[in-house]
Specification:
By secondary structure, the chain is of the alpha/beta class. The protein is built from 14 helices and 22 strands. It has a seven-stranded mixed beta sheet. The protein has a five-stranded parallel beta sheet with strand order 9-2-1-13-22, covered by helices on one side. The structure holds flavin-adenine dinucleotide. The site of flavin-adenine dinucleotide has 42 residues, from helix 1, strand 16 and helix 14.
Length: 416
């Protein structure tokens, strides 16, 4: 199954690695994918074992579905795609109760004002600065909008992010969901590819004459390499490059750190469990300085599952302590659904993206001043013998499966 003398070796069998391998196969090139973990999909991973129902630990929406390369691939596999936005009942909790229609309208207006301000500031050009500096302040909903757009969506606070990169990578709908998750889709797309699991690359020798990957699996040589490990892994020195990477590439890796988004999924079979309808979402308004609310998605596909989302600094504070994350999600549930409903939530599973040395976080953002870093990281080295690919490399669809996929295809096309 594995070619003995591959044209290309790919490090990582997430979306970018799978896309690269498929593209190379289409072009008649041979490759081997070396995946350090025991499964394919990387940060697109769904499983049913822990709660008895499909649960996407990582990506769960195909954002901006009209331009998402995974939308037609899912359709070609005959998978059902549901437009979550069309089904979603969006609720807001504020002042200790569900928000009124007028409050929801005011919140929506504050969101529009936020995007107007960010887009205007980004269009004005000028030197890069933190995205937070462009956000409206002082209005009754501004802190909630900033928390939602920063920590909860981008997995990092707006103060930590480049304004220009934030504006350039902002996404729209439709947001599609799949019965067996985005993880289920990506696993299907990996079928039949030459992927070697449990093959963690510790060292990569690279140069104009070719590459050699080394690890406990031994050594694999090829004419070129596509490295798709996350910027969290790369920044932590998870792969030793020989010779060391050039300064601009190394700086780009460090300028694109991973934020963290932790999900806590609960079984919600009990009649007293929170009564949010299927496909609903609930956000809680920021109640004051230091308040960092979680948000909820309820009963996708009618399944008795409630998922709490916690992003940014609060998620990092809980990293490595699943019991704490579960306790905090239960406390959050008591706040928004009442203590009786919270007590009726069943067993839980907590995602562990931060502590896994093959990921070290959720997805990337550019730090202020680093709006060009994604293009620098994606630039081929050694006459095209070494490419980086993955979500962090895409200047438009960064932080998503779409960006990872497109950058994998791009890297494969750039191999000489
Ligand atoms: C909680 C969460 C929610 C998300 N929600 C969404 C969403 O709704 N929609 C969306 O589009 N995106 C979402 N994302 C982002 C999306 O999952 C990622 O952008 C995408 O999956 C990244 O793919 P990748 O190929 O770039 O990297 P990865 O998926 O990280 O793939 C890299 C692979 O490399 C392997 N690896 C690492 N180091 C080594 C090594 N030394 N040797 C060999 N293999 C190695 C890893 O095991 C991994 O399989 C979410 C992510 C998270 C974590």
């Amino acid at each position: 199954m594995f070619p003995s003398d591959p044209d290309v070796l790919i490090v990582g069998a997430g979306c970018a690695g799978i896309a690269a391998a498929r593209e190379l196969a289409m072009r008649g090139r041979t490759c081997i994918v070396l995946e350090g973990g025991p499964r394919v999909g990387g940060r697109a991973f769904a499983e049913s074992a822990s709660l008895g129902l499909p649960f996407d630990h990582g990506a769960s929406w195909l954002h901006q579905a009209g331009e998402n390369p995974l939308t037609p691939l899912a359709r070609a596999l005959g998978l059902d795609l549901l437009d979550h936005d069309a089904l979603r009942d969006r609720r807001l909790f504020a002042h200790g109760r569900m928000a009124t229609a007028a409050e929801r309208q005011a919140f929506a207006a504050a969101e529009d004002a936020f995007w107007m301000a960010v887009e205007t500031a980004a269009r004005d050009g000028g030197t890069d600065r933190p995205a937070a500096s462009a956000a409206p302040r002082g209005g009754p909903w501004d802190a909630t909008v900033a928390h939602w757009e920063g920590s909860q969506i981008c997995a990092a606070e707006l103060a930590r992010m480049s304004l220009h990169d934030f504006a350039a990578t902002a996404l729209d709908g439709p947001n599609l969901i799949l019965r067996y998750g985005v993880g289920g889709l990506v696993a299907r797309l990996a079928e039949g590819l030459p992927i070697r699991l449990g093959a963690r690359v510790d060292r990569l020798r690279w140069g104009p004459r070719g590459v050699v990957a080394q690890g406990t699996f031994g050594a694999v040589a090829a004419r070129a390499a596509i490295v798709t490990a996350s910027t969290g892994v790369l920044a932590a020195g998870g792969i030793a490059f020989d010779p060391p990477l050039p300064g601009p590439t190394a700086a780009a890796i460090h300028a694109l750190p991973l934020g963290l988004l932790t999900k806590v999924a609960f079984r919600a079979d009990h009649p007293d469990a929170p009564g949010l309808p299927p496909f609903a979402s609930l956000r809680r308004a920021v109640a004051g300085d230091g308040d960092r609310p979680m948000s909820w998605i309820s009963r996708l596909f009618g399944d008795p599952l409630m998922v709490a989302f916690c992003g940014g600094a609060r998620a990092w504070e809980m990293a490595g302590d699943a019991a704490l994350a579960e306790a905090e999600a239960r406390a959050e549930a008591a706040l928004v659904f009442g203590s009786r409903a919270a007590a009726a939530l069943g067993r839980a599973t907590v995602t562990r993206w931060a502590e896994d040395p093959l990921f070290r976080g959720a997805y990337s953002h550019a730090v202020p001043g680093a709006q060009g870093a994604r293009r620098v990281l994606a630039a081929p080295l050694a006459d095209g013998r070494l490419h980086f690919a993955g979500e962090a490399c895409h200047p438009r669809f960064a932080a998503t499966v779409a960006g990872a996929w497109l950058s994998g295809v791009e890297a494969a096309r750039g191999v000489p």
